[in-house]
Amino acid sequence: MNGKTGGEPKITISGLTKSYGDKHVLQGIDLEVYPGETLVIIGPSACGKTVLLKCIIGLERPDSGTLLIDGEDTADLTSRQRDSIMAKTGMLFQQSALFDSMTVWENICFRFRQSRDLDRKELRQFAIEKLGNVGLGADIADLSPDELSGGMKKRVGLARAIADSPEILLLDEPTAGLDPIMTNNINQLIMRNAKTIGATTIAVTSNMDGAKAIADRIAMIYDGKITWCGPVSEVENTGNEYFDQFIHQRGSGPIQMRLKRR
Ligand SMILES: Nc1ncnc2c1ncn2[C@@H]1O[C@H](COP(=O)(O)OP(=O)(O)O)[C@@H](O)[C@H]1O
Ligand SMILES: [Mg+2]
C-alpha cells in the first residue's frame, strides 16, 4: 500500500539499506514523497527514523539502494551537486542543534550568510522577519540559544530550517519534549510555513495527534522497512497490525519492543 498522490515524486527511495556493524537498521526502505506534500514518519524508537533523514540530506551514505531527488540519483553526485541539494533542503534536528556560540539571528542566517549579498544589519533584519513567521519577536534576536526555553529553541530551529525557503523540509521530532499546548502551536507553525513555502516536507514524530494534524500521508518504519504508508484518512483502517498497535499505543501486540509512551 502506497497511498500515492499525483505527479512525479520529489524524492524516490528504493531498497535503501544502512547498517552499523551487525546492527541492520534500514533493511530495504521503499518510499516516494510528492512535491508539496507533508509525509510523517512514525515508528518505535531506534527504528532508524533519524538515520533515514540523514541519508536523505546526505549526512549518512546508504549501504545500498537508490535515493533520487528530482529524479537524480544522489549516489552519482559530485560534491558540488550534493552541496546544491543541501542548499535546497532545510532541516530541524531532534535537539534543535542551535549553536550556543552564536546569537539567535546568527543561527538563523548561518547557512547563507556567505552566499547572500547582505551586510550584518540586513541579515539581522532578515532573521527578525523569519522569527515573525514562527511567532517570535525581535527582542530575542540578540539572545544566545542557551537563554531560550525548549519551545523557543524549537521555534528558532524551525525558523532556521525554513529561512531559505527550502524545496525540501526535514523535521526530526519537532515537538518532542514540549507540553501539549506548545506541541499544537509548533504543529500549526509547521503546517502554515510548509504550505506557504510549498516545501516537500518529511517530519518524524512520536506524537500521533500531531502526525494526524500535519500529515497528508503517514509512513511507519518497522523492522527496517516501511510496514505501512498511506493517507491520513486511512489510518484507522490499515489492516496492518504493527501500525494499529503503534498508533493506539497498545502494550501487547506484534511489536515486541517497548513502546515509547508520551
Ligand atoms: N552513527 C551511528 N553509529 C552506530 N549506530 C548508530 C549510528 N546512528 C544511529 N545508530 C543506531 O541506529 C539505530 C537507529 O537510530 P535512529 O535513526 O537515531 O533511531 P530513531 O528511529 O529513534 O530516530 C539505533 O539503534 C542507533 O543506535
Ligand atoms: Mg531519532
The profile of the biggest β sheet is:
6 strands, mixed
The beta-strand count equals 10
Approximately how much helix is present in the residues?
25-40%
- Rg over CA atoms, rounded to whole Å, is 18 Å
Report the end-to-end length measured between terminal Cα atoms: 28 Å
Strand order of the largest sheet: 6-7-8-3-9-10
**Low-pLDDT segments:** 258-262
- What's the SSE pattern? EEEHEEHEHHHEHEHEEH
What percent of residues are in strands? 15-25%
The DSSP helix count reads 8
**Assembly of the depicted chains:** single chain
Mean pLDDT: 90
Textual characterization of the structure:
- By secondary structure, the chain is an alpha/beta fold.
- 32% of the residues lie in helices and 23% in strands.
- The protein has eight helices and ten strands.
- It has helices at 49-57, 79-87, 104-109, 120-133, 150-162, 180-197, 208-214, 241-247; strands at 11-20, 23-33, 38-42, 64-69, 72-73, 89-92, 168-172, 200-204, 217-222, 225-231.
- The strands form two sheets. The protein has a six-stranded mixed beta sheet with strand order 6-7-8-3-9-10, with helices on both faces. A four-stranded antiparallel beta sheet has the order 2-1-4-5, with helices on one face.
- The protein is globular and about 55 Å long.
- It starts with 10 loop residues before the first strand and ends in a 15-residue tail after the last helix.
- The protein binds adenosine-5'-diphosphate and magnesium ion.
